[in-house]
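STRUCTURE:
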């Protein structure tokens, strides 16, 4: 793997950007980090109304932040998940976070999207099953809508919020004034929308003409709808190979 001469703008939240940025740097590429989303834990009062976990058959984590903040609070209150509960993670990074807390993931989709998760075998024939959904405030409602339609008794716990991060205007302006970036990496629609706000109207022409990588067909459609002209879809697990393809 050699990314010599390639500069990538990594828009993932601060704590989640490091692994990809390090992989880029280790491959002799240049990684510029510009978090488009700030992730903050919610008020932890949800722990006081946490239902008896023994009453649930499944628990779903739709991001690594969901797992991070949920398990941190469980540890703070000396609560453990029962071994009888099946754990579903939306993707490999979420699985890794859960494993770090000492739990084994039972199910993980091949494609790390809401649609991919809903195709899992354990997401069918769930009438009257008690299922916990751990997520952030807002975001897509595809999973909860489908599980409710399939007859599950769904309990939603929101453990973090997303917001715009503080902007270093000098740093942001230098990225497009000096055309430092070859490719932009996006992993959510919220990040795409926020990047347009962060760069501002004067940089719009630069943004829409800059190649970008997204992690699903849905995000490709969203990026195109905002005017981005060159959008490549890549499974997040294959990002490095996709980046190398830009040099060929």
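SEQUENCE:
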């Amino acid at each position: 793997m050699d990314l010599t001469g390639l500069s990538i703008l990594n828009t993932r939240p601060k704590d989640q950007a490091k692994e990809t940025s390090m992989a880029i740097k280790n491959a002799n590429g240049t990684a510029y980090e510009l978090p488009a989303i700030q992730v903050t834990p919610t008020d932890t009062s949800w722990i006081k109304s946490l239902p008896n976990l023994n009453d649930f058959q499944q628990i779903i984590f739709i991001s690594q932040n969901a797992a991070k903040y949920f398990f941190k609070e469980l540890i703070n209150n000396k609560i453990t998940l029962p071994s009888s509960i099946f754990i579903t993670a939306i993707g490999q990074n979420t699985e890794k976070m859960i494993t770090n807390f000492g739990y084994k993931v039972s199910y993980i989709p091949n494609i790390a999207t809401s649609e991919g998760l809903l195709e899992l075998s354990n997401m069918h024939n769930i009438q009257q099953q008690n299922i916990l959904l751990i997520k952030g405030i807002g975001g897509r409602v595809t999973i909860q809508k489908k599980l409710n339609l399939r007859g599950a008794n769904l309990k939603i716990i929101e453990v973090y919020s997303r917001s715009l991060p503080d902007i270093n205007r000098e740093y942001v302006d230098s990225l497009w004034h000096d055309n430092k970036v070859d490719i932009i990496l996006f992993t959510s629609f919220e990040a795409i929308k926020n990047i347009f706000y962060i760069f501002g109207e004067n940089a719009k022409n630069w943004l829409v003409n800059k190649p970008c990588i997204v992690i699903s067909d849905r995000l490709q459609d969203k990026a195109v709808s905002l005017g981005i002209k060159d959008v490549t879809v890549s499974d997040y697990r294959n990002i490095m190979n996709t980046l190398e393809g830009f040099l060929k």
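REMARK: The chain has two domains: 7-37+165-238, 40-162.
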